[in-house]
Design goal:
By secondary structure, the protein is α+β, with helices and mostly antiparallel strands. The protein folds into three domains: about 180 residues, Four Helix Bundle (Hemerythrin (Met), subunit A), CATH 1.20.120.1730; about 80 residues, Signal transduction histidine kinase, dimerisation/phosphotransfer (DHp) domain (Helix Hairpins), CATH 1.10.287.130; about 150 residues, Histidine kinase-like ATPase, C-terminal domain (Heat Shock Protein 90). About 70% of the residues lie in helices and about 10% in strands. It has eleven helices and seven strands. The chain has a five-stranded mixed sheet, with helices on one face. Strands 1-3 form a two-stranded antiparallel ribbon. β6 and β7 form a beta hairpin. α3 runs antiparallel to α4 and α7 runs parallel beside α8. It is rod-shaped, with a radius of gyration of 52 Å. The two termini are about 60 Å apart. About 25% of the residues are buried.
Length: about 475
């Protein structure tokens, strides 16, 4: 069995990997910088040696020319110029001697230095009348100077080649570093999405699915920490489901126990209504009948919830014209309240759906009953039937208390009521929960729009039957 990763271990591995990668890249960059600095220093030294070699060659030529003219003319100015050239020559030799050199450059400089020393001794510093015969030393010295210059320039070319090579290496290394960084970020992103993000998203989807269907559980997948969260959430869901089952079982038992007494009470109320001799007795009997009917609806809601939760709820689907359902519901509630006006609006053509007509009547009746109940000051209650290309739409609109925004998400939950409706209005919060389950059993949707103090509109969407049945 494959072991799930741990976020802690994953972060440690990623941290260690990035640290090693950073060390390797840093070492490579440091080596490149050191080599480039060394090459730059070599290039500067080479350029210095090249300048010295060119100056030595120039001063040799100048000294030779000035010495020759002085020997021929005896003009002291040329003697002075020859001495200045010799002094500059000695100075450049000393500077070149102090510069670091390659073995080839050192050998070429040694020959040049020896040649110049012989030239100075035999020609430049020779007594008058003896230096002309040794002018060939100028030619030898000039050849050695050119050879030294050639060696220096060859070294400069080699250094430049090395510098260019290392520059290319540095560029490649920089590009490789950028590529590695981007690839690493991409891998980390993919790892985070696969190991962290997707399990959390699935966990969130599981929570959202549980809000719609309480049988859904969140997946226990992903890192160990996310698995632990999922397991804890599922255990919590299981405990809540067990508590809800115990609650519904108890309520179902109570509802079953209440049915027989309620039947007896209804029979007695009907008998009292038939035997009433005065209008007062008749009104009391009617009021008693309404309360008994309300209690019967509550008992039936309790039984419906228990059947739905237990999976023993069956529907008798048939092609149904919703216009008849709307008209019957409006007729039923038309005289329930003297301060409410139930207004009905249906299209001229049949609106056919595949549904259990009794259960759809139950849903619509529940919505109309709530509209009357939560409009304590009275007013119109509009019941409308409309159609779109795919849906039949039932709307029940009241001008009552309205539902606060913070309570709308829970209004369809069992035993949940709006805080504004809990004071002075009877009910236990089962009607809308049953309506939601019945509508979903018909593959439909139910929603609410509401403004506090203005009223509420409940909207039920049911899929239309085929075009032939709707025509």
């Amino acid at each position: 069995m494959r072991r799930s990763p741990s976020l802690r271990n994953a972060y440690l591995i990623l941290g260690a990997g990035f640290s090693c990668l950073a060390l390797l890249l840093t070492a490579a960059l440091v080596i490149s910088v050191v080599w480039l600095a060394e090459l730059s220093a070599n290039l500067r030294r080479t350029i210095g040696g090249d300048r010295a070699a060119m100056e030595i060659e120039f001063q040799l030529i100048r000294a030779g020319r000035s010495h020759q003219i002085f020997r021929e003319t005896g003009d002291p100015r040329w003697k002075q110029d020859a001495d200045e050239s010799e002094a500059r020559l000695v100075e450049e030799l000393d500077r070149a001697r102090s510069l670091p050199k390659s073995p080839e450059a050192a050998e070429a400089f040694a020959r040049l230095d020896a040649t110049v020393e012989a030239l100075r001794r035999n020609v430049l510093d020779a007594p008058p009348g003896q230096g002309v015969a040794r002018r060939r030393d100028f030619l030898v010295a000039d050849a050695d100077a050119k050879n030294y210059l050639d060696v220096i320039e060859a070294n400069a070319d080699t250094t430049l080649d090395h510098a260019e090579a290392w520059s290319r290496i540095a560029i490649i290394l920089a590009a490789f570093t950028v590529l590695v960084v981007f690839l690493s970020l991409a891998l980390v992103t993919l790892f985070a999405r696969r190991v962290i993000y997707y399990p959390i998203v699935r966990l969130r989807h599981g929570l959202e699915g549980h809000a719609r269907d309480q049988s859904i559980r969140v997946p226990e997948a992903g890192p160990i920490e996310v698995q632990a969260i999922g397991a804890d959430v599922n255990r919590l869901f299981d405990r809540l489901a067990a508590q809800r089952d115990h609650q519904l079982t108890f309520l179902a038992s109570v509802a079953h126990d209440l049915r027989n007494p309620m039947t007896a009470l209804r029979t007695s109320a009907q008998l009292a209504e038939r035997r009433a001799e005065t209008d007062g007795q008749r009104r009391q009997a009617e009021r008693l009948m309404r309360q008994i009917d309300r209690m019967n609806r509550l008992v039936e809601d309790l039984l419906d919830v228990s059947r739905i939760e237990a999976g023993r709820f069956e529907l008798d689907f048939a092609t149904t014209d919703l216009r008849e359902v709307v008209r019957d519901t409006c007729d039923l509630y038309e005289e329930v309240s003297e301060i409410h006006e139930v207004r009905c609006s249906v299209p001229d053509r049949p609106v056919c759906v595949s549904a259990d007509a009794t259960r759809i009547s139950q849903v619509l009746g529940n919505l109309v009953s709530n509209a009357i109940k939560y409009s304590p000051e009275g007013g119109p209650v509009d019941v409308r039937l409309m159609t779109t290309d795919r849906w039949a739409i039932l709307e029940v609109e009241d001008r009552g208390l309205g539902i606060p925004e913070e309570d709308r998400a829970a209004v369809f939950e069992a035993f949940r009521r709006s805080k504004a409706a809990e004071e002075g209005i009877p009910g236990v919060g089962l009607g809308l929960s049953v309506a939601l389950r019945l509508v979903r059993a018909h593959h439909g949707e139910i929603e609410v729009e509401s403004d506090v103090g203005v009223g509420s509109t409940f909207r039920v969407r049911l899929p239309l039957a085929d075009a032939e049945a709707s025509a």
